[in-house]
Design brief:
The strands form 3 sheets. Strands 1-2 form a two-stranded antiparallel ribbon. It has a two-stranded antiparallel ribbon with strand order 3-6. It has a two-stranded antiparallel sheet with strand order 4-5. The protein is built from 5 helices and 6 strands, in the order αααββαβαβββ. The chain folds into 2 domains: 75 residues, Alpha-Beta Plaits (2-Layer Sandwich), CATH 3.30.70; 63 residues, Alpha-Beta Plaits (2-Layer Sandwich). The protein has 157 residues and is α+β, with helices and mostly antiparallel strands. Strand 1 and strand 2 form a beta hairpin. The longest helix has 7 residues. The model has no long low-confidence stretch (mean pLDDT 93). The structure holds iron/sulfur cluster (SF4) (2 copies).
């Protein structure tokens, strides 16, 4: 769906909602609060925050979020805001597409090896290598599994 802001900008192509840095206010509230100062970019130790049309987004192809909170501390506009009732950084979880190598008969466990939460499990099966499956309850949405996947089969949503 095209948002009002996209419509005003003449941007009619729909694209997935941008992944804001952790503890970001939701949707339009974030856009209203963020002054596009870019202060959250240089403080991120894993350098995963990029500017898209001036606003910060997380690019998991660059690395993972360690949930250090440095971007939140740098955000004087309070567009990234952590408080007692906003403890969760986000609700995104890893999702593995059908292009995943074991699903196509090729042995691979790279994502499981990289997951700091041990949230990717491999179930044995007859006639093929164990298949990767995300345990949504354990996944923190850190994105550590995204960049190492040799076939870019993992997204976060
Ligand atoms: S919490 Fe830390 S690692 Fe995660 S995006 Fe913010 S600055 Fe980067
Ligand atoms: S997003 Fe992070 S916690 Fe979730 S499966 Fe990938 S590496 Fe593990």
């Amino acid at each position: 769906m095209v948002s009002r802001r996209q419509f005003m900008r003449g941007d009619f192509k729909s694209r997935p909602p941008p992944q804001r840095p952790p503890w970001a206010l939701a949707g339009e509230a974030f856009l209203a609060a963020c002054s596009r100062c870019g202060e959250c970019l240089p403080v991120c130790p894993t350098r995963i925050i990029v500017l898209v049309r001036g606003y910060p987004e997380v690019d998991f192809k660059r690395g993972e979020c360690s949930f250090c909170g440095a971007c939140v501390a740098a955000c004087t506009d309070r567009a990234l805001l952590r408080s007692e009732n906003r403890e969760q950084p986000w609700t995104i979880k890893a999702q593995i597409a059908d292009s995943c190598l074991p699903a196509r008969g090729v042995e691979c466990r790279i994502c499981g090896d990289r997951c700091p939460a041990a949230a990717i499990r491999f179930s044995p099966r007859l006639g093929g290598p164990p298949v990767a499956k995300v345990d949504a309850a354990s996944c923190t949405g850190c994105g550590a599994c995204v960049a190492p996947c040799p076939v870019a089969a993992i997204t976060l949503a």
